[in-house]
Amino acid sequence: MTHESIVVTNPATGKVFREIVCHDETILDFFVREGRKAQIKWQKVSFSDRLKLFKKLKRHIQKKYHELVEPNQSETGKTWPDAMVDVISAVAEIHELERRGEAYACEHVSNHVFLSNKNAKVFFEPHQLVGVITPWNLPLAIPAADIFPALFLGSAVIWKPSEYTPLTALKLEEIMKNVGFPAGLMQVLLGYGDIGAKLCQVADHISFTGSCKTGKKVAEICQSRGFIPNLEMGGKAPAIVLPDADLRRTAQALVYGAIANSGQYCKSFERIYVHKEVLHAILSYVIQIVHYDLKPGRDYGPMITRAQFDVVEKQIEDVKKAGAHVCWRKELPDRLRDGGNWLTPAILYPTDHSMSVMKEETFGPVMPFMEFDDIGEAISLANDSHLGLNASVFTKNKKLFYEIAGYIQAGNVVGNDAMINWFITDAPQCGRKGSTSQYGGLPRHGRTGIQRFGKPKTIVWHDHPFFHLPFFKTKEPWWLPYNGLTNLALRAFLHGF
C-alpha cells in the first residue's frame, strides 16, 4: 500500500476487492476552486429550495437504502443491522433539518416589552468552504451529521473520509449528484492523513471526528489560521449499575452498549462499574446472553482495521498479565479463523484502574467489570478518565439518576439505556475533557449542530413607534436632546427588568 492508492479490504474475509487512486494536492486545489464557485450560487438558494433537495435525498435513501448498506458492509464488515444504523442516522439528520433547520439558521429574538418595537433576528452566515474529516467506524452517520447541516446553512463541503471506508463516501456523493445537488457543492477527497492535513490548511472551517492524537494536530493547524475547529475525539464511556437496577434489562443494555458494532462506537461502554450486591448476578446474566444468544456475523462483525484488532488483543493480554482473568470468551468458529479481523467478545473480571483496558480507549468487543461499594466511589471511578463523551447509569430511582448525572464528567449521561442520545437529534452531542471541549468548538446536533457552520450576525429592524405612541414616531425617548421624558423613560427601564 502506498500513498498513491487506497487498497480496500473486506475485514470480514481479509480479501482485497478494490483499489482506488488517492487525490493529490493538485486535485485538492481544484476541489477548493470548484467548491467556492458552487457555494456562491448555493448561498442564493432559499432554505425552502435547499430542503426540497434534502427531501429528495431522504426519499431516495429510504427507498434504495441497500445502495449505502452494501458498500458499508463490504469495507467495514458490519452486520446488516449495524450498517442500517448508519443509514437511519443519515435520514434522521435530514428529518431534523426539516423540523428545525430554518429556525436555527435564522433565530427570532424575543425582546423586553420596552423594546417590543424592535424586530431582532440572528442570522448565521455560512463559512464558504467547510472541510469534514471523518473516521471509519460510522462511515455514513458521522459524516451526515456534519455535511448535511453545513450544506443546509449554505456552505460547500470537501469531505475527507477514512482511507478504510472510501466506498460509502463515493456512493453518497454519487447519490447526491443524482438527486440534484449542484456539482462541486459536496466533493469527496480520497487519501491518507497527509491530504487531510492539507485540507485543514485551505478550508474556512473544519469539522473533525477521530483520534485524540490526530484531533490535536487538526486543532493546532486550525488555531494557527485563526479559527477553532469542531472536534469529537474518542470516548471511554462508563456504565454504573446500582443495586436497585432492573438486572435483566441492565444486562441486555450492557451487552448492546459494549458489543454492538463490535464495540467500535465512541460511545460504547468500555468501563462497567457494578455495585457489589448485584455484581455476580449481572455477570451471570451477561455471560448467558453473550454465550447463548450472540453469533458472529449476525450480531457482531470483525474489527474494521487490523491495527484496532491488535490494540484490543493487547489490552486483553495485559489484563491477564496483571493478574485478572478473562472470565468468559468464546472460541471463534472454524470458518472465521483463516481470514479477517475477527474477535469474540471478552468479559473481564476483576479489573482495576491500573490496567490499560480501564484507562485507554479500547474500541472493541470487551466488557471489563469492576465492583464498587457506594455511589461516591462509583462517581469517582467514572470520572477517572481523560475522556468524557458518554456515560450511563442504571437505577429505578429517577431522582437519584439526575443527581448522579450532575456529578459525572461527561457530555452526555443516559439513564437505563445505551448510546440512545445519538438519535435524539435535537439535543447536542456534548463532550468533556479530551473528548472535545479542551480544544473548543461546538457539538453536533440540535441548535449548535447547524449554527457551528456559520458566523452569527444580529440584525435589528425598527418596526413601529415606541408603544405605538405617535409622538415617538420621529424620536426614541432616550435620543438626544435629553429632557424630562428621557429621565422618566430611563427610570421606567430601570424598574422594568
Describe this entry's structure for a reader.
The strands form five sheets. A seven-stranded mixed β-sheet has the order 12-13-14-11-10-16-17, sandwiched between helices. The chain has a five-stranded parallel β-sheet with strand order 7-6-5-8-9, with helices on both faces. The chain has helices at residues 25-42, 47-63, 66-76, 80-105, 141-153, 166-179, 193-202, 212-224, 247-259, 279-293, 306-321, 356-359, 375-383, 398-407, 446-451, 484-495; strands spanning 5-10, 15-21, 106-109, 118-126, 129-133, 156-160, 186-188, 205-209, 230-232, 237-241, 269-275, 326-329, 346-348, 366-372, 387-388, 390-394, 412-415, 432-433, 454-462. The chain is an alpha/beta fold. Helix 14 links the parallel strand 16 (390-394) and strand 17. Helix content is 42%, strand content 19%. Helix 2 runs antiparallel to helix 4, helix 2 packs antiparallel against helix 5 (141-153) and helix 3 (66-76) crosses helix 4. The model has no long low-confidence stretch (mean pLDDT 95). It has three domains: 5-233 and 444-456, Aldehyde Dehydrogenase, Chain A, domain 1, CATH 3.40.605; 237-424, Aldehyde Dehydrogenase, Chain A, domain 2, CATH 3.40.309.10; 464-495, no CATH class. The radius of gyration is 26 Å and the shape is globular. 47% of the residues are buried. The longest helix is centred in the first third of the chain and has 26 residues, at 80-105.
Strand content: 15-25%
In CATH, the topology of the largest domain is named: Aldehyde Dehydrogenase, Chain A, domain 1
* Average of the residue pLDDT scores: 95
Head-to-tail CA distance between termini: 67 Å
Bulk shape:
globular
CATH superfamily of the largest domain: Aldehyde Dehydrogenase, Chain A, domain 1
Described by strand count, sense and barrel closure, the largest sheet is:
7 strands, mixed
Per CATH, the architecture of the largest domain is 3-Layer(aba) Sandwich
Counted by DSSP, the helix tally is 16
Number of domains: 3
Q: Give a count of the beta strands, DSSP E runs of length 2 or more.
A: 19
Based on secondary structure, the structural category is alpha/beta
Low-confidence stretches: none
Share of residues in helices: 40-55%
Q: What strand order characterises the main sheet?
A: 12-13-14-11-10-16-17
Oligomer: single chain
Q: Which CATH class of the largest domain applies here?
A: Alpha Beta
Output the radius of gyration.
Answer: 26 Å
